[in-house]
Structures are given as C-alpha cells and as structure tokens.
Amino acid sequence: MYNPPEYKEGDWHCQAVMGIEEVRILYATLDKFLKDDDVPEDHQSYLTHVHQKLFGMLQEYNFHSK
Questions:
Q1: What is the 3-state secondary structure (H, E, C) of the chain?
Q2: CA separation for the pair 61, 15 (Å, rounded)
Q3: Do 18 and 26 touch, CB atoms closer than 8 A?
Q4: Which pTM does this prediction carry?
Q5: Tens-place pLDDT, residues 10-64
Q6: Which of 4, 31, 43, 65 has its CA 20 to 30 A from that of 49?
C-alpha cells in the first residue's frame, strides 16, 4: 500500500489543475494500465493510490453536479 509523504514548508512539490474530462481520461487510462500484468510492484501501489483519488474526484463531481 502506498503511503504518501508529508510535505514540510520549503519542500518542492507541484499541483495539477484538470477539468472533469481530463480526470475521466486519466482515470480510464490508469484503469486500463493497472489491469496489465506487467506493472512493476512499486509502481502498482502508487498508481492504485492515484486511481482511487481520481475515483473520489469523479464521485465528488457527480454528487455536486446533480
């Protein structure tokens, strides 16, 4: 299981701004990629974490857009 690091003041990090269509595309791409048996173990954990975060974003969008 991937455990994201905690960032301290001054640590380098970045943020990405995406629209709902970009989130959908990234989620679908990761979904397809994660079904591949050739994903390295260390990548699998992180990508699953991101996939779950994207799923949450989609659910939040769907909840607020109704």
A1: CCCCCCCCCCCCCCCCCCCHHHHHHHHHHHHHHHCCCCCCHHHHHHHHHHHHHHHHHHHHHHHHHC
A2: 19
A3: yes
A4: 0.85
A5: 999 899 999 999 999 999 999 999 998 788 888 999 999 999 999 999 999 999 9
A6: 65
- What is the distance of C-alpha 1 from the center of its chain? 14
How far from each other are the two terminal CA atoms of the chain, in whole angstroms? 33
Domain ranges, ordered by start, for the chain: 20-65
Is the distance from CB of 31 to CB of 51 less than 8 angstroms? yes
